[in-house]
């Protein structure tokens, strides 16, 4: 027992406190010593094989070894797979094996095998201790263990083995020992340090030239090669720690080289990097599917950091591309060069190497050489990423690539993921996407947020994966999600024993992809070369095991999922549970193999289509938007709109987007009553904000890909609020952008999207709401005479379906059978009415009936009863996600067309996505208009030609016949002039936009002035910015900004509201250039004095009208204070991210002291440091991700430079700690209050809820309204002005302000 306790105690001193103990008699001294040591955590398992993998997982997660205690005999042999994996992947592991004493070896003693050197070359250190005796100095035990742990935790990390023979009796029995064996232990016993302290040599010597292996000249050669690269690439292989990953990221940022991450690098699942100046190439593996691209993506210098790469295709490409230099940096000394291509092998940590390169290469010009190469890789990868996303979303079933994407998307930075071998790790490497909305701000460096990730890639076996993952959870002390195949799961079901009855064990969610066999083998060539029975029985190893019953036996929660929604929900539920879960996902080997092949073929074809656009994207000159202008229009119609609106005219806005190259593009924003939810005033408010936000922004060529690039461009420049742009506005913006690019290249919209010119067939449109059947038939006959071969009739306009049917019958009789007839009910009929109509026109050979029933849930029943061919229209418009649901429930082949309106769906990109989805189901897309002007009709005709060119199905007539309703157009040349016999020539379409009538953008209306208020011993000078209303009778809205802000913060909102309100914004004291406060007691003014001064200012500004007072943050507290003190001019108040103050007096004192300290740091430390530190606060987390953040910081510094003293005074005097608590006064509010908070601002969302409760307590809940803004944090006016404007406008209309 003495030696056992010495071993355990020394382990603890060396940081090895986690013991994995297998039951056994011979090892009982070690087990008892471990259990008796209070610093030790013990875990046990009956299966040594699982226990070894568990300890391996712990070492992966903790980056320090766990000790495995086992008995003698074959128990030790069961550890070999885990030892091999630990050795191959450099994971620290300590094995303490009990053994028979030497006299019982090789004599046939029970449970005895040769345990010396049992693990061969797979351990870093192997020592056979003598049996415990007083004849050997006890310090020998300690020094042996010290050496073992040093070898396990020094590069190359790995497993070590100490064999411990014990003689019987094994239990603790008192025996007399010679105390001389303890000689030399007095100092050790008096301290907490290990007996021998190993001091490793610094790895920096390898890089400064003092090492013998790598001379200074050799490292200079490496740095020279890196500096000379014109197509340099960094490949991040398997990396073990976040610090290592960040070092690689920083190096890529310094060199401005593209970075290709392996899934185990930590960067494959990292947060998006758009604003981090690093091009992370997530999907190079799929880019390589297209061999024609290999020459253009081949690097001349490869710098690989971390040796293992999951992707076989990438590995082969790197080996075959013949670079000038292939440099591998890895901490261990082992050979990892399967292609025999390495020119330089550097044994170093990633951090030391990165520091060396960044120190050596400081010239600012050399990174530019690789910029265009990096851009090319990035646009290719990004295009593939969007195509993968589309195909995974378009596939209704739960495929294995989709499983990988959903699982990887469910991981957060607070959790970890472990990947099983075979297909799970490959699918995640190929199909995962990065984290969303998670970014880490460390110091002044933007670094990606990453998740902990692990896998057994040393030997890449499928055994022991469950145990390793559970140990990984224990080592990293995080909840782990394990993605694993069914065979791998069956290999290690004993690992489930670790998940029950272990209090300190973090829970694990096991996602088991059960395709009832080895799915990866179905992707190999052998699958098609041998008899199916042989392949099934001997290769794919099919099984029929019930996983749910296995889980039940282990008392583990189990759920079977079979759809995307079920998997997402199961992952969400498991994440909030304190228990472990097994989520079994049903899959099919053959369907999975087919989908993998389809996906790869789709990506190959997609790259072929988009290559011309991508080439322009990286080679063309930058196109900067220098102006975005709008001009309202109104033109008369020949007859009433078929949507049911009573107007005989059409209104909207023309949009002009001007580029720095002198070319312009035109778009149209025309919400249609009865179709669009937004109206003209809504879009006018949005356009006023967007025109300013997009000015100065680069317009990239790749928006013409129609693959999500336009959406990404909007998000990059507008942040989350891009998702809130109205469909009609988004369509107009995209139209103008595409036309601007087309003008720049002297081509058409069709050509700029790389479409093929072709004629477009148009269907004639007939309104059947009036006239006899003969009258309508005559109209149809006239259209046929004009050359139309397809006619569309609007039905469900008459009293009875049979009356509509009579008209259709009359038309069919008049035009004959050669003309295609379509009818459109616009969802106006009940199921029984639709069936009645269908029966009445059964002999009319209708091409399709569009939207027959008023509820899409009734559509399957209609199709089943009538067998009529149907087209979808409003079902798609109202909710495009319903499209998939309808297709799933409808009989196959009965839905034959999808009517796609770009103006209703939010533009060409969204429309094309639905077109592709339709074509995937053999449904013909029909492009349709919303009664826009000829400008839009010309663009839609080109889009229709583009869609026809991409469709494998025969082309159809498109729904652009609304041109017949236009009496006098918004453009000089109408669309009707280029329609010839129902056909539009693609060559003639582009001429329409060039005849645009005079464009009249509104003039800016902003001005600024100062106003002085004398109050007691104070003199306040306020700078005021005004945006005047175009209305003569005007309501006034006054805006107050937050700390560090200015009146200009509100300008986008003010311009947006200026069509209805007179808007003014006030610079508060200490802010801006002109606002100030002076007086004998200047340092003592506060909220009450300032509110009084502002009240006087409002009297001056009101011009006799009532005022809506709106404030943000600090300005919100002022506005609330003034509203509660019943200023007679204030009609209503808007509180944006504001608070009634602190209830607790002591909390107010503390807060005032804190703000005084901040004010002092501002005075003494300067504005630059103060602003940087101010915006590092958690309150600004979402703002830091906003695309305007950098510009915001710059404007804050420019605005307040030299004004630090006054600004510090405002911070101190207007501290929330000095603000009177307003909670008790809330119920006294006599005017309506609107409280606006960002949904991501948890603190102020909670405050808003408390304010609602305070009002309801006094039965005054109706006086206060709360609006939570999607996609926004604390700084709502900057982060989401579009939704803020909607909330303000709705509120002011609601309280009677027009």
Automatic annotation (TrEMBL):
<keyword id="KW-0464">Manganese</keyword>
<dbReference type="Pfam" id="PF02776">
    <property type="entry name" value="TPP_enzyme_N"/>
</dbReference>
<dbReference type="InterPro" id="IPR001763">
    <property type="entry name" value="Rhodanese-like_dom"/>
</dbReference>
<dbReference type="GO" id="GO:0009063">
    <property type="term" value="P:amino acid catabolic process"/>
</dbReference>
<dbReference type="Pfam" id="PF16582">
    <property type="entry name" value="TPP_enzyme_M_2"/>
</dbReference>
<dbReference type="InterPro" id="IPR029035">
    <property type="entry name" value="DHS-like_NAD/FAD-binding_dom"/>
</dbReference>
<dbReference type="InterPro" id="IPR033124">
    <property type="entry name" value="Ser_caboxypep_his_AS"/>
</dbReference>
<keyword id="KW-0460">Magnesium</keyword>
<dbReference type="InterPro" id="IPR032264">
    <property type="entry name" value="MenD_middle"/>
</dbReference>
<dbReference type="InterPro" id="IPR013342">
    <property type="entry name" value="Mandelate_racemase_C"/>
</dbReference>
<dbReference type="Pfam" id="PF12697">
    <property type="entry name" value="Abhydrolase_6"/>
</dbReference>
<dbReference type="InterPro" id="IPR029058">
    <property type="entry name" value="AB_hydrolase_fold"/>
</dbReference>
<dbReference type="InterPro" id="IPR011766">
    <property type="entry name" value="TPP_enzyme_TPP-bd"/>
</dbReference>
<dbReference type="InterPro" id="IPR012001">
    <property type="entry name" value="Thiamin_PyroP_enz_TPP-bd_dom"/>
</dbReference>
<dbReference type="InterPro" id="IPR022485">
    <property type="entry name" value="SHCHC_synthase_MenH"/>
</dbReference>
<dbReference type="GO" id="GO:0004185">
    <property type="term" value="F:serine-type carboxypeptidase activity"/>
</dbReference>
<feature type="domain" description="Rhodanese">
    <location>
        <begin position="701"/>
        <end position="722"/>
    </location>
</feature>
<dbReference type="InterPro" id="IPR036849">
    <property type="entry name" value="Enolase-like_C_sf"/>
</dbReference>
<dbReference type="InterPro" id="IPR000073">
    <property type="entry name" value="AB_hydrolase_1"/>
</dbReference>
<keyword id="KW-0456">Lyase</keyword>
<dbReference type="GO" id="GO:0070205">
    <property type="term" value="F:2-succinyl-6-hydroxy-2,4-cyclohexadiene-1-carboxylate synthase activity"/>
</dbReference>
<keyword id="KW-0808">Transferase</keyword>
<dbReference type="GO" id="GO:0046872">
    <property type="term" value="F:metal ion binding"/>
</dbReference>
<protein>
    <recommendedName>
        <fullName>Rhodanese domain-containing protein</fullName>
    </recommendedName>
</protein>
<dbReference type="GO" id="GO:0009234">
    <property type="term" value="P:menaquinone biosynthetic process"/>
</dbReference>
<keyword id="KW-0474">Menaquinone biosynthesis</keyword>
<keyword id="KW-0325">Glycoprotein</keyword>
<dbReference type="InterPro" id="IPR018110">
    <property type="entry name" value="Mandel_Rmase/mucon_lact_enz_CS"/>
</dbReference>
<keyword id="KW-0479">Metal-binding</keyword>
<keyword id="KW-0786">Thiamine pyrophosphate</keyword>
<dbReference type="InterPro" id="IPR029017">
    <property type="entry name" value="Enolase-like_N"/>
</dbReference>
<dbReference type="Pfam" id="PF13378">
    <property type="entry name" value="MR_MLE_C"/>
</dbReference>
<dbReference type="InterPro" id="IPR029065">
    <property type="entry name" value="Enolase_C-like"/>
</dbReference>
<dbReference type="InterPro" id="IPR029061">
    <property type="entry name" value="THDP-binding"/>
</dbReference>
<dbReference type="GO" id="GO:0070204">
    <property type="term" value="F:2-succinyl-5-enolpyruvyl-6-hydroxy-3-cyclohexene-1-carboxylic-acid synthase activity"/>
</dbReference>
<dbReference type="GO" id="GO:0030976">
    <property type="term" value="F:thiamine pyrophosphate binding"/>
</dbReference>
<dbReference type="InterPro" id="IPR004433">
    <property type="entry name" value="MenaQ_synth_MenD"/>
</dbReference>
<dbReference type="Pfam" id="PF02775">
    <property type="entry name" value="TPP_enzyme_C"/>
</dbReference>
């Amino acid at each position: 027992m003495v030696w056992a306790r010495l071993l355990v105690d020394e382990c603890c001193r060396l940081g090895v406190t986690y013991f994995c103990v297998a039951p056994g008699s011979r090892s009982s001294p070690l087990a008892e010593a471990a259990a008796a040591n209070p610093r030790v955590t013990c875990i046990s398992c009956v299966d040594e094989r699982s226990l070894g993998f568990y300890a391996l997982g712990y070492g992966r997660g903790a980056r320090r070894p766990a000790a495995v205690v086992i008995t003698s005999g074959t128990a030790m042999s069961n550890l070999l797979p885990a030892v091999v994996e630990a050795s191959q992947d450099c994971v620290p592991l300590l094995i303490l094996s009990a053994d028979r004493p030497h006299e019982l070896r090789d004599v046939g003693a029970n449970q005895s095998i040769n345990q010396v050197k049992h693990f061969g070359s797979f351990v870093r250190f192997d020592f056979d201790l003598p049996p415990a005796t007083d004849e050997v100095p006890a310090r020998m035990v300690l020094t042996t263990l010290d050496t073992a742990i040093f070898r396990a935790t020094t590069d190359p990390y790995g497993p070590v083995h100490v064999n411990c023979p014990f003689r019987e009796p094994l239990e603790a029995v008192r025996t007399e020992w010679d105390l001389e064996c303890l000689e030399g232990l007095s100092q050790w016993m008096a301290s907490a340090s290990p007996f021998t302290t190993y001091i490793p040599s610094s790895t920096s010597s390898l890089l400064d030239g003092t090492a013998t292996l790598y001379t200074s000249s050799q490292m200079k050669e490496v740095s020279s090669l890196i500096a000379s690269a014109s197509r340099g690439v960094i490949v991040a292989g398997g990396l073990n720690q976040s610090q290592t990953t960040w070092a690689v990221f920083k190096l890529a940022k310094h060199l401005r080289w593209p970075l290709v991450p392996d899934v185990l690098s930590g960067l494959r699942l990292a947060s998006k990097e758009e604003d981090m100046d690093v091009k992370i190439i997530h999907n190079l593996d799929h880019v390589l599917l297209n061999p024609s691209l290999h020459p253009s993506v081949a690097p001349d210098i490869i710098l690989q950091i971390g040796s293992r790469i999951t992707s076989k295709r990438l590995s082969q490409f790197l080996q075959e591309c013949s670079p000038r230099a292939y440099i591998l940096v890895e901490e261990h000394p082992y050979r990892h060069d399967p292609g025999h291509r390495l020119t330089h092998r550097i044994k170093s940590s990633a951090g030391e190497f990165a520091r060396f390169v960044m120190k050596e290469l400081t010239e600012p010009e050399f990174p530019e050489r690789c910029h265009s190469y990096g851009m090319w890789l990035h646009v290719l990868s990004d295009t593939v990423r969007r195509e993968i996303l589309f195909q995974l979303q378009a596939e209704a079933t739960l495929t294995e690539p989709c499983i990988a994407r959903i699982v990887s998307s469910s991981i957060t930075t607070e959790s970890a993921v472990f990947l099983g071998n075979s297909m799970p790790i490959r699918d995640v490497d190929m199909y995962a996407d990065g984290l969303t909305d998670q970014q880490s701000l460390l110091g002044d460096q933007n670094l990606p947020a990453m998740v902990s990730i692990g896998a057994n890639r040393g030997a890449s076996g499928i055994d022991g994966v469950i145990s390793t993952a559970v140990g990984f959870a224990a080592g990293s002390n995080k909840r782990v999600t394990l993605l694993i195949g069914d065979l791998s799961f069956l290999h290690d079901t004993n690992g489930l024993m670790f998940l029950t009855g272990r209090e300190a064990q973090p829970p694990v969610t096991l996602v088991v992809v059960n395709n009832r066999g080895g799915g990866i083998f179905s992707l190999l060539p052998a699958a098609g070369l041998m008899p199916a029975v042989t392949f099934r029985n001997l290769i794919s190893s099919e099984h029929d095991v019930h996983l749910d019953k296995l889980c039940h036996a282990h008392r583990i929660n189990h759920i079977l999922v079979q759809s995307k929604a079920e998997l997402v929900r199961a992952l969400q539920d498991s994440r909030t549970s304190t228990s472990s879960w097994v989520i079994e996902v049903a899959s099919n080997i053959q369907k999975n193999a087919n989908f993998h092949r389809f996906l790869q073929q789709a990506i190959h074809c997609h790259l072929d289509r988009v290559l011309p656009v991508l080439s322009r994207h990286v080679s063309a000159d930058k196109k900067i938007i220098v102006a975005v202008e709008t001009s309202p229009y109104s033109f008369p119609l020949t007859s009433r709109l078929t949507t049911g609106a009573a107007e005989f005219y059409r209104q909207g806005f023309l949009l002009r987007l001007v580029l720095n190259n002198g070319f312009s593009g035109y778009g149209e924003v025309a919400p249609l009553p009865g179709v669009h939810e937004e109206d003209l005033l809504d879009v006018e408010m949005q356009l006023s904000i967007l025109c300013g936000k997009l000015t100065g922004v680069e317009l990239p060529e790749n928006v013409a890909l129609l693959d999500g690039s336009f959406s990404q461009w909007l998000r990059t420049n507008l942040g989350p609020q891009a998702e809130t742009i109205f469909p009609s506005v988004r369509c107009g913006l995209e139209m103008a952008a595409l036309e601007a690019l087309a003008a720049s290249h002297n081509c058409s919209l069709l050509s700029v999207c790389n479409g093929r010119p072709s004629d477009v067939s148009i269907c004639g449109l007939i309104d059947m709401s009036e006239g006899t059947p003969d009258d309508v038939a005559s109209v149809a006959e006239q259209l046929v005479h004009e050359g139309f071969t397809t006619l569309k009739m609007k039905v469900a306009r008459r009293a009875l379906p049979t009356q509509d049917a009579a008209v259709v019958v009359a038309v069919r009789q008049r035009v004959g059978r050669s003309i295609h007839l379509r009818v459109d009910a616009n969802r106006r009929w009940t199921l029984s009415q639709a069936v009645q109509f269908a029966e009445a026109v059964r002999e009319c050979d209708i091409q399709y009936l569009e939207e027959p029933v008023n509820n899409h849930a009734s559509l399957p029943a209609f199709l089943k009863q009538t067998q009529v061919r149907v087209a979808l229209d409003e079902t798609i418009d109202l909710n495009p996600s319903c499209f998939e649901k309808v297709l799933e429930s409808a009989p196959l082949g009965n839905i034959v067309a999808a009517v796609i309106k770009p103006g209703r769906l939010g533009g060409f990109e969204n429309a094309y996505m639905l077109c592709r989805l339709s074509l995937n189901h053999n449904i013909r897309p029909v492009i349709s208009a919303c009664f826009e002007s000829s400008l839009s009709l010309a663009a839609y005709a080109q889009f229709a030609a583009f869609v026809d060119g991409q469709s494998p199905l025969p082309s159809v007539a498109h729904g652009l016949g609304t041109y017949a309703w236009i009496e006098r157009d918004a453009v000089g040349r109408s669309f009707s002039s280029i329609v010839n016999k129902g056909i539009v020539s693609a060559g003639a379409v582009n001429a329409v936009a060039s005849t645009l009538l005079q464009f009249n953008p509104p003039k800016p209306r902003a001005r600024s002035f100062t106003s002085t208020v004398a109050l007691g011993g104070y003199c306040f000078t306020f700078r005021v910015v005004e945006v005047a209303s175009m209305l003569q009778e005007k309501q006034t809205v006054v805006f107050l900004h937050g700390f560090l802000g200015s009146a200009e913060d509100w300008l986008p909102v003010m311009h947006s509201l200026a069509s209805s309100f007179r808007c003014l914004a006030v610079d508060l004291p200490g802010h801006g250039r002109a606002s100030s406060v002076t007086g004998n007691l200047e340092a003592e003014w506060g909220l009450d004095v300032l509110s009084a001064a502002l009240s006087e200012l409002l009297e001056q500004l009101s011009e006799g009208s009532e005022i809506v007072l709106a404030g943000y943050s600090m300005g919100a507290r002022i506005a609330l204070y003034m509203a509660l003190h019943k200023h007679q001019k204030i009609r209503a108040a808007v509180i944006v991210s504001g608070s009634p103050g602190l209830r607790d007096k002591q909390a107010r004192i503390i807060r005032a002291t804190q703000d005084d300290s901040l004010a002092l740091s501002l005075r003494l430390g300067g504005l630059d440091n103060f602003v940087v530190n101010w915006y590092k606060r958690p309150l600004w987390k979402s703002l830091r991700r906003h695309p305007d953040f950098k510009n915001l910081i710059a404007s804050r510094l420019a605005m307040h430079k030299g004004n630090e003293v006054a600004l510090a005074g405002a911070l101190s005097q207007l501290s929330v700690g000095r603000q009177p608590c307003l909670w008790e006064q809330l119920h006294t509010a006599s005017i309506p209050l609107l409280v606006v908070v960002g949904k991501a601002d948890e603190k102020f969302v909670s405050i808003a809820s408390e304010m609602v409760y305070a009002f309801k307590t006094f039965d005054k809940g109706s006086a206060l309204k709360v609006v939570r803004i999607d996609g926004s944090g604390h700084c709502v006016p900057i982060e989401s002005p579009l939704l803020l404007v909607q909330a303000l406008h709705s509120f002011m209309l609601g309280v009677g302000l027009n």
